[in-house]
Amino acid sequence: MIQIQTHDFPVSLAFPPQGHWTQPHLAIPCLKAWLHAHGYADVEQMDLSVEAFDRFLTPDYLERARALVQERLPLDRFDAERLPLGEMRAWRAAVESAVSAEALVDRVEEAKAILRGEDGFWDPDRYVPAVRTLYHGLRLVSAAHYPSELTPHNFTMGYSNDSSEDVLAATLDEEQNPFIAFYREDVLPRLVARRPRVLGLSVLYGSQLIPALTLGRMVKEALPDCHVTMGGGFLAYIGDKVMSVPAMADCMDSIVFHEGERPLLELCEVLRTGGELASIGSLAWWDRSGDRTRSVRNAPAHPIKLDEAPIPDLDGLPLTKYFSPRVVIPYDVNRGCYYGECTFCTLPTVIGPGYRTRSAETIAKHVTELRDRYGSTHFNFITDCMPPGMIQDLPEQLIEADAGITWWADARIEPKAYDAEGAKTLYESGCRKLLFGFESATKRILKMMMKGQSLKSVVEVATNCTDADISVTFYAMVGFPTETLEEARATLRFIEEHSDVVREVSLQTFHIDEVAKTYKQPEQFGIRVLDAPGDLSLYHDYLAKEGMTQEEAAEMFEEMMASFRENLPIFSGDNIFYFMQKSHYFLHLAEGTTPDEFAARCAERTAAREERGADDDLEVSPWLTGVAIPFSHAECVRTLGDPLARAARPDFLTGRFVRDAEEIAEARLAPLERRPRALLYDPENGEFVELSPDGVRVLDALRAAGRLDALVDAQRARGASDAAIEKLRTFAAQLHRLGALRPAGATLTPAARRSRSSVLLNPEVSRVEQA
Predict the structure, then answer these.
(1) Separation between Cα atoms, residue 202 and residue 17, nearest integer Å
(2) 313: number of CA atoms within 13 Å, CB side?
(3) Tens of pLDDT along 477-488?
(4) Half-sphere exposure in the Cβ direction for 354 (13 Å, CA)
(5) What pTM was computed for the model?
(6) Which of these, 79, 231, 350, 494, could form a disulfide with 256 (CB 3.0-4.6 Å)?
(7) Cβ neighbours of residue 12 closer than 8 Å, sequence gap 6 or more
């Protein structure tokens, strides 16, 4: 084994923005552990994604964002008779920022504390408003860098991910790229002081490409002797295209394809000893020795024996900064896919050669050590799908080792493995949630996908798991080539009919990428793949000979999501935030709540809100703020939610711009006509409320009266009819459901107790008719 002095060769590993914020990602802990095991002691790892979220969601940063929005998106810019589609996103960002920024600045720290704490996290009436506050905080940050959008789930800019010219320009655009200032202020000083010899950046998702290249460019300028290397799943797809663009050499020195442990170790050895980069397997690198920079792609490296890989090392990660009260530890039980036949799937290709797994004994040993080292009993087993043998062996090993953990994982429909007895054993071993690749309820589509499963087995497996109190999530797909609207609705009906055993559905529209069989053999799927416009393109548009168009598939996606909101309690109302925050629902299961109990709790919350009435003691929420607006915010939100408008933005999954989508949307979606309104923000519930001028006058009257019963009495004294009083009460009930009214004397959150003010509404709201 290589022996190196602790500080002879400092290495820094970073997970760039943007990845999910509820739990650590596994890539760099595995790399760090491998380097440590081979003698490299001075290895630093940084989750810059969660660090960026933590930095952006602070009072001082939100104040900065507020000032930038006022400068870049002033409200008087939108003083017109019509608002076209191309201006709607900017206008929405401007007015939402104007009405919510002050409250967000005041409440953001408490919201973070709730998501990270043991108190408010478990109370949905504190948890949901806290999540909303953080989402709206990121909307404020996004507005400051318009047209960029940063969420816990994605990052896009006004630049396309599939164009090298766009991507490189984005790394220099400080107005749109919020990470330039973040790196300069919070990251680069640390790296300059440390002076690592190697900086490794893990790019798993397309949303990380521009942030990673931005950091790489800045590090190469500040530390020319530092070798910047990148790897990860997304670069396994497009790495060759990246390396075909010489200007990319300004942002990095090499790319590691597929599995990173062995190539990274060899890279460190070559740089430390003066060897040849050409000797490193699975490495692509820039040869700068001649008159011009050229790219070189080395032969693939042999994969490591996974059962001999060390325990992932989470030391140094900011474990207290994840937006979760408990650390959920990621652990890879295998790599690749034992099935590997699905025609749409590309994960086995990009993860690396061959399917490999750790033994159940090794997993149980590692899990107990991780449990003790980091004081957490919660695990996310990282796997494309758990193989049948592992499903049987691992639970027994965990039980025998008295691991005392809870865990969740992706899985494949395997009736023999998930029989009734097997599901009970899984639960006993700590399994609380499984996510199955269901995809479709149409046999013809399943056959084209080569899923190798029957609907009977799907129901059987889901039922057995549900009976064992293991929560079941289905991955589903809409728009697979030749799928008709009727077939998609058959999938929807199947899920509706089995909503008693399916708690969540992770739905996506079909995309064609250059690794899948659907791209390589399009004639088998009745499609013609269209040439992609960008030189970094991975995903392609296509024309189908039959079945839904891509536009129809997008519309069907919305129809299915609407059904899920109605039929799946976790998707109803604001309960969907539990689904959106990756591990949060799992933590409730881990605490002993059964899936049935959680679903019932969600249904009760939704029903309770819908049943809010015109109680006599209702008063105007004392923290309500407002701004006069010339157009309907609600109409704007609906228009921007139209599939045509969504297609005109960078695609959520790919970050690319769909060809001609903006022109089509502009032609078919009507502009907003001027309709004076007021937009209110209720920081206690974290919601926006729109009122007409008449509604503002009623709200002002209610505020002046103090309580609803006092206003009703005053109106009766003035001779108001029963019909008018009933209309007033109906309106009050609506405002109660929206959060603008609340029972007098209701419990206040700490932030509310601090911020209660006699200034209830922006005075301009009362003059909304003149806006």
Answers:
(1) 10
(2) 17
(3) 999 999 999 999
(4) 10
(5) 0.94
(6) 231
(7) 43, 44, 45, 46, 191, 194, 196, 198, 199, 200
